[in-house]
Every structure is written in C-alpha cells, then in structure tokens.
C-alpha cells in the first residue's frame, strides 16, 4: 500500500460511520413510553386495526414528536406511527397485534429522515406515562390548579394584611 492509499483507506473507515445517516427509533419522553414495533392488522384480515376507534392523520411533514403531540393534545392514551407519514391516536390497543422485531419498523419519517416512523404494516407504538386517562386527568389537574390559585391569593392577602398592620 502506498501512503496515499493507506490514508484514503483509513479516512474511509473514519468517515463511513459518520456519514451513514441512520434513522433511529424515537425514544421514550417525559410524557410517553415507547412500547415497541408491532404488526398492523393486514388488509386481508377481518378485525380492527392495532390502534382503532380514535383519530388519525397522514401528513407530508410527519415526525414522531408531531404525532405524539397530536395524540397528547387530543387526550389519547396510545399513539402510533406507520408507513413513514401516518399517525394514529387511540385509547384501544388491540391485543391481537403482536410485537415484532424492531428492524421491521424501518421507514424514516417523511418529515425527519433521522427518525423511524413505523414501516409497511408495522407500527411504532407509544403509550402515555402512568396510563394517563382521557379527560379525567385533565380535569383533576385543572382542579388542583384552581386550589393552587386560591392558596396563592390567600398567602398574598395574608402578606398584605400582615404588612398593613
Ligand atoms: C399480526 O397481527 C395479527 C392481528 O391482525 C395477528 O393475527 C397475527 O398473528 C400477527 N402476526 C405476527 C407475525 O405477529
Ligand atoms: C430530527 O430528529 C432529531 C432527533 O430527535 C432532532 O435532533 C432534529 O432536530 C430533528 N430535525 C428536524 C428538522 O425536526
């Protein structure tokens, strides 16, 4: 090997792992747990899709965070990305559909090529932390928030009165 070809060989070794842009599975977040790659109900099969009875959208700018935000703001318990640009939100997660090898969820998101958005009839499924439930959890938070306001008002009044005396 000439020094030049050795140099080229070594730089190829260095550059290849850096340049190979590999899409990765979007990990769990503060609000969502990543559950895994699951198989979708095939069109030939009679039965609900894996995440059914909720809402869905397919957007040319789809990313995993976008799908999670969409499902979270609509108070759904489960979110799934499929086929590069589809997003499903549901409170029902079919028990018939099975976890499959992670490699089968292999399509980069159309809106962000460095993230995986499911595959053909394969879905990356996410679940809200602590089994967050529909509207109930939100009402509870609002209730606590209101009491927090009253408490703050009480403290402010006490300080004002105390200061005046
Ligand atoms: C995929 O999910 C369907 C439910 O639609 C199930 O009947 C089937 O056994 C699953 N196949 C695999 C390979 O997990
Ligand atoms: C794509 O996703 C990665 C990983 O989450 C993130 O760092 C990057 O900012 C995203 N890019 C765009 C354009 O959203």
UniProtKB/TrEMBL annotation:
One of its GO terms (cellular component) is plasma membrane. Residues 1-20 form the signal peptide. Coiled coil: none annotated. It is found in: Membrane. Residues 31-129 form the WSC domain. It is a single-pass membrane protein. It holds the Pfam family WSC. The keyword Glycosyltransferase does not apply. Keywords: Glycoprotein, Membrane, Signal, Transmembrane, Transmembrane helix. Its main location: membrane. InterPro entries: Kremen_rcpt (IPR051836), WSC_carb-bd (IPR002889). The keyword Membrane applies. This is WSC domain-containing protein. It comes from Amorphotheca resinae ATCC 22711.
